[in-house]
Amino acid sequence: MEATIDPLVVLIKKLKEHSHLSQEDLLEVRRLPCSVRELDSHEDFIRQGDRPKVSAIVVEGMLARYHLLPNGARQYLSFHLAGDMPDSQCLFIEVMDHAVCAIGKAVVASVPHRDLMKLFDSRPKVGAAIWRETLIDAAIFREAITNNSARSAPARMAHLFCELFYRSRASGLTRDDTCILPIGLNQLGEALGLSLATVNRALANLRDADLADFKSGSLTIRNWAGLADCGEFNPRYLHLRREPF
Question: CA–CA distance from 198 to each of 11, 25, 73, 77, 152 (Å)?
């Protein structure tokens, strides 16, 4: 997989989903130095315990944050699409308390922290926009805690599918009612706190209700209103300026 577009154009498109930036702001973002690399499926970009000097921009594919447990198991915390900065928090903390890896093959751009901090000083609105990214991440974390703690297995899955499809559509990554989610069933269980058997039962429940289908890394929405109702999904926590529906 090779990047086909400028990583900074991808970042700008994402920031404009929730923030207003002037042409001067955008020009300075375009001047950020960055390097691009490909990640294999499950390859780490940053490991738990690292002291990173760069931040990531997802250019193509999907990345995920996860906690690595002492027994080697993973708890997936969030999934990140093109334009996301999944480790922007590491600008303000010294040691990573989680890891970031590719879900399927991905292309990632690295931007040095020192250059981002200089940009924040010279263009405060850009700093505010990236800070807003971290606040939206926090909102997604809060929603995930509620989702995994208070909802049934089918409702948990419905909510996550709604969120990922909604975000994909806002970023122009859907085709009709389908989007690519290269998430394995085990990873889906690790994100939702469900066993593999329960994941399969929940998927069957959504299929039988003709709400959604997920197979071979592809999510198809059959009934958006019904799926959102099942998962009690309200997109306000994503804080988008332009709603994709």
Answer: 36, 47, 18, 19, 10
Give 195's contacts (C-beta < 8 A, 6+ positions apart): 189
Q: How confident is the model over 140-155, as pLDDT tens digits? A: 999 999 999 999 999 9
Amino acid at 154: P
The single-letter DSSP state of residue 57 is: E
Q: Do 206 and 133 contact (CB within 8 A), yes or no?
A: no
Say which residue the tokens 């799926």 belong to.
Answer: 227
d(CA 64, CA 66): 6
Residue 61 backbone class (left: φ over 0; alpha: ψ -120 to 50; beta: rest): left
- Cα separation, 214 vs 183, whole angstroms: 10
Beta bridge partners of residue 74, listed in sequence order:
68
Q: Give yes or no for a contact between 231 and 161, defined as CB atoms under 8 angstroms apart.
A: yes
Nearest to 239 by CA among 134, 106, 89, 121: 134
pLDDT tens, residue by residue, 33-48: 999 999 999 999 999 9
Distance, in Å, from the CA atom of 83 to the CA atom of 116, rounded to the nearest integer, reads 16
DSSP state of 105: E
Helix (H, G, I), strand (E, B) or coil at 72: coil
Q: Inter-axis angle of helices 113-122 and 23-30, to 10 degrees?
A: 160
For residue 235, the 8-state DSSP code is: G
